[in-house]
Specification:
Layout: E1 4-10, H1 14-20, E2 30-37, H2 44-49, E3 57-62, H3 69-78, E4 84-89, E5 92-94, H4 96-102, E6 112-121, E7 124-126, E8 136-141, E9 146-148, E10 154-156, E11 161-173, H5 176-196, H6 203-220, H7 227-253
Helix pairs in contact: 5-7, 6-7
Amino acid sequence: MPKITLLLLTHNEQEKIEKNFGWLDVCPSINEIIAIDDNSEDKTVEKVKKLQSKFRTVRVFSRGLNNDFSAQRNFGVSKSTNDWILWLDADETVRKDFIDFISHIDNNKYYNYAFRRHDIFLGHELKHGETSSQYFLRLFNQKHGKFTGQVHEIWQSDKPIFHSNCFITHTSHTTLRSFFNKINLYSDIRSQELYQNGVKTNLFQIVFYPKVKFIQNYLFRLGFLDGTPGIILALGMSFHSFLVRAKLWHLSSQ
């Protein structure tokens, strides 16, 4: 059983830390927590430090996000004393089957493990839509890859991935305000990233990409079966697509 580091990025997450990480007490394979805190103004750091136990160390580093999630996570990876790293967000938690799985991985056969996700949005579980059929690579050996992408970062590795049917529960947004604030923030970061990479957009993309995004999530991925939360999410992600391209156009035209 390899020892695993839990990697967290935090920013004003005190309630989520207290709510979502009680499972650590029955997960002895995680013997270290590395938290990279983006200048929290609440008791997040204090709550993270309370996750320390007799068999688990906790180290918190204060570091501004600077609109680059991958840089933040790669910094955290560099501070880990273990080769194996599990990365979660503060609004995610796991169940017993997940704990059992990561406690018995074959660390000589695979270097990357991906998991399904249960999304809870505005208090409702979503069973369809954008992320329903996706796997998320969350457990890896740090010797074989790195994080890429300023926003919606992923672990990039040339090693095979084992796809587990264990779930991560993701309670994303409890209010529409937080949902649209994140859309605005993430579209800022993504448009800046595209602009820095020399990508340009045009009227066709600004008009039609959001429409295609909505049709894909709401119809083809059956988001309509999730009722009102399903259409709110589909429209929100379509709006995100619109904002990215509108902001990219504005940056390019200045």
